[in-house]
Amino acid sequence: MTERDFVSAFEQRKELFIRQVMPGDNNRKALDLFEKWLKGKLEHKKKPQKSQVNKKEFGLLLDSIVKEAESRLAGKGIYASCVSSIVPGNRSNSRCIRVKHLDSIYYRICKTSPRKGKHSGKNLLAVELIMDGNKNNIFLPLLFEKANMEKELGMEIERERQTIEATGKYRFKILFDLDEYEEKAIARQLGEAMAKFMLVTWNYLNQIINNNN
């Protein structure tokens, strides 16, 4: 807010403040208190409403994100559908999405709060590409393209720890800190990011699958 804006707001709200908070008191102390009150109101307006949602609302949020991603992908000629009802897992905290022509591979969006590592204690949303059991034919060729995919996405793609990959679980994921997004915009913003991740990885997956055939 500029100084002119502040003065304008001061003039508009001064009389209201004095009538409501300190009727009949026009001294300097009252105006000082008013200035503090006004700054507090302005600061409150600037603070974004964080995405603090309960378990039921989070499920609806995931549905909105997936719907946004599906719509954006359809515009690119890629048809994805939510299949959480037939994939094991906690439906309230995750959604699984399959893309046409990718039979043993699927995408997942889920909530996670890591206890270790650089993301420890954060309230995160993960968008994952699940390639379990497809080490040599899918994961390793895609790993070779990881830097190129990150360049196209403009963000880091993370993989599982080696101890987890040793069990046959191969995933690429992008992570979002839910506390950094405004509640009103989160579905659109994360839906767009999810669609971009799926589009970029799908293009490379298609090349790999075609080369394998």
From TrEMBL:
> Which superkingdom?
Bacteria
Q: Please report the name of this protein according to its UniProt entry.
A: Uncharacterized protein
Which source organism does the UniProt entry give?
Answer: Desulfotruncus arcticus DSM 17038
